[in-house]
Design brief:
The protein is α+β, with helices and mostly antiparallel strands and about 220 residues long. The chain is about 20% helix and about 30% strand. The strands form two sheets. It has a six-stranded antiparallel β-sheet with strand order 4-3-2-7-8-9. A three-stranded mixed β-sheet has the order 1-6-5. Helix 2 packs across helix 4. It is globular, with a radius of gyration of 18 Å.
Length: about 220
């Protein structure tokens, strides 16, 4: 019979009075230190608290924005000694490059994963599986522990609507997006009303990029 997996949960609370933009040092080393504190000092970790970014922040801070389909995911140990940890590589087939030049295939590197029955994870971090279709707002890929603007807030699902004929946009928690102008300002209003189609959402991103370029 297989033994129970060892699970270590990394949990980081960012004060609500602070903007996530004030944490440019969200690099892997700092979170490895926090991981050791969680693993050995706390019996249970709290959920990660992240201030949702506004739509302007999503578009501006992202170095790469794309629509893609998950084609694979693999986890492995990396580092030595006290810096030894698990990372997961999630690969995407690029359907539409909206900002940056991700190429035809793109891989993001995320802290955590499961290898040989041992799991390291960041609570509330996005979970990807093969076949997922997403629009991602990527920043600091390869150096930031979760390389998405606002962690889970930088991932948007592409979903078929009830009829199956059209595609809508949903946040990582499954709530459909109705008003991008309310993102990060009034999250309840942002997901209330008729869901935006994929085309409308991408058009809003491109409009915002054009406004930035014109300044």
């Amino acid at each position: 019979m297989r033994g129970r997996a060892n699970i270590f949960t990394l949990s980081v609370d960012i004060p609500l009075s602070e903007s996530i933009s004030r944490y440019p040092v969200m690099k892997l080393l700092r979170y490895l230190i926090l991981l050791s504190l969680v693993a050995f000092a706390l019996p249970a970790a709290r959920a990660t608290t992240v201030i949702p970014p506004t739509f302007d922040e999503l578009v501006t801070k992202a170095e790469t924005i794309f629509e893609g389909t998950v084609t694979g995911s693999r986890s492995e140990w990396t580092g030595e000694g006290s810096n030894r940890h698990i990372v997961t590589y999630v690969s995407f087939k690029i359907e539409d490059a909206i900002k940056g030049a991700p190429g035809s295939d793109y891989t993001i590197q995320m802290f955590g994963g499961t290898v040989d029955g041992q799991t390291m994870e960041v609570s509330d971090a996005p979970r990807f599986k093969v076949g997922d279709r997403d629009i991602l707002f990527v920043e600091n890929n390869g150096t930031q522990f979760i390389p998405l603007v606002g962690i889970m807030h930088g991932r948007f699902h592409v979903q078929a609507d009830e009829s199956g004929a059209n595609e809508k946009i949903a946040k990582d928690n499954g709530a459909t997006v109705a008003d991008v102008a309310k993102l990060g300002q009034d999250e309840a209003a942002a997901v209330t009303g008729t869901a935006l189609s994929k085309g409308q959402f991408k058009a809003a991103i491109r409009q915002k990029l054009a406004e930035k370029a014109a300044k």
